[in-house]
Write a structure and sequence with these properties.
The chain has 342 residues and is an alpha+beta fold. Among the domains are: 41-124, no CATH class; 269-319, SH3 type barrels (Roll), CATH 2.30.30. 23% of the residues lie in helices and 23% in strands. The strands form 3 sheets. It has a 5-stranded antiparallel beta sheet. Strands 12-11-10-9-13 form a 5-stranded antiparallel beta sheet, with no helix packed on it. Strands 6-7-8 form a 3-stranded mixed beta sheet, with helices on both faces. The longest helix has 28 residues, at 120-147. The termini are far apart.
Length: 342
């Protein structure tokens, strides 16, 4: 497969981002071992018991988060591991929020709930699943190369009860992986789920350091991706260089949208570049704006001197800030316009 680079092996976070799903049914019977019971009586006794109306947000591998109801009033605190209802089984994750939540979270949590807290045996089995995922990764990679599929495997997630294995991959176009699903089902004898994700979700799973030197926003605190446009970079007067505006995913950095509203407010209080302004030292034309300090570099008509002034020291016609209309070019004469003789 062209362009494949296997990610380095090492410890992975216990959470995974949500993405678009392409799920294929498994034709092999499920032969999963029985799940280990939760031994979390001591943890539940030490943690404060939340109310039955509280919501619990649980984080899984790859920074994937989901909300659950807590009608059983299981004693949970942020940082605890708990057992939750999953697709045709149950799964294990780390609690990252306990509280009333939002209405959208409550709608999501109405279909799934928290079952119990987790003990040492559950944590041991979780680590065993994480170790088995590397074997699943190698086998799936081998099957992809045998089928010569144009797809790049990103990571593998095995459900806690081992009733399902999810493979996350990227591809430039839609991939027909039906034969691949049959091959994997014949090997693992469980339900197989293949999900095609985007490059931004891939960066969220793998993590890394941004141009600022900090951990990527998407893999640390950012819950959902917001649309980022090149217009935001222009409004902040940033150099339109792909190397400085793009993140590890190759797309525009998510942080460009954080201060976009503040820049728009500053821009609304300032004249545009090229506008004629009146200052205490005479009239001039705006050549440059500093939106952080809300100052403008004005070139005076007399002496061609450039001074830096604040918005309160200038007056200008607000009509100059309106976008200019498109000027139409004069229509060229056409042979049809010439008079014809009958």
């Amino acid at each position: 497969m062209s362009g494949w680079t296997e990610p380095p092996r090492g410890p992975e976070p216990d959470d995974l981002p949500s993405a678009g799903t392409q799920e294929a049914p498994c034709e092999a019977p499920c032969e999963a071992p029985p799940a280990a019971p939760c031994d979390g009586a001591d943890v539940a006794a030490a943690a404060p018991a939340p109310g039955p109306d509280d919501l619990v947000m649980v984080q899984f591998k790859g920074h994937r988060k989901s909300c659950y109801h807590n009608r059983r009033a299981v004693g949970l605190a942020v940082g605890d591991y708990c057992m939750v209802e999953a697709d045709r089984g149950r799964d294990m994750g780390r609690v990252c929020y306990v509280g009333p939540g939002k209405d959208a979270w409550r709608r999501e949590a109405s279909r799934q709930g928290v079952l119990a807290t987790c003990g040492p045996e559950d944590l041991r089995r979780l680590h065993e699943n994480r170790a088995d995922e590397w074997e699943c990764y190698d086998i799936c990679l081998e099957k992809i190369q045998e089928r010569r599929l144009e797809m790049e495997l990103v990571t593998v997630e095995r459900q806690f009860d081992r009733n399902k294995i999810t493979f996350y991959f990227t591809a430039e176009k839609r991939v027909d992986f039906r034969q691949l699903v049959k091959d994997l089902a014949a090997v693992f004898r469980t339900r197989i789920d293949l999900r095609q994700i985007g490059v931004r979700d891939e960066a969220k799973i793998k993590g890394g350091l941004g141009i600022c030197g900090r951990e990527l926003c998407c893999s640390s605190f950012l819950g959902e991706f917001s649309p980022v446009t090149l217009k935001m970079a222009k409004g902040q007067q940033l150099p339109l260089s792909p190397n400085k505006l793009s993140g590890l995913c190759g797309r525009l950095r998510c942080c460009l949208s954080y201060e976009h509203e503040g820049y728009l407010e500053s821009l609304s209080r300032m004249p545009r570049v090229g506008a004629r302004v009146t200052t205490p030292r005479g009239e001039g034309r705006v050549r440059k704006l500093d939106l952080l300090r809300e100052t403008a570099a004005v070139q005076l008509d007399e002496g061609s001197l450039t001074v830096e002034l604040g918005a309160a020291e200038m007056t200008w016609d607000a009509r100059q800030d309106l976008p200019r209309g498109r000027q139409r070019r004069p229509r060229k004469p056409c042979h049809r316009d010439e008079p014809t003789e009958h």
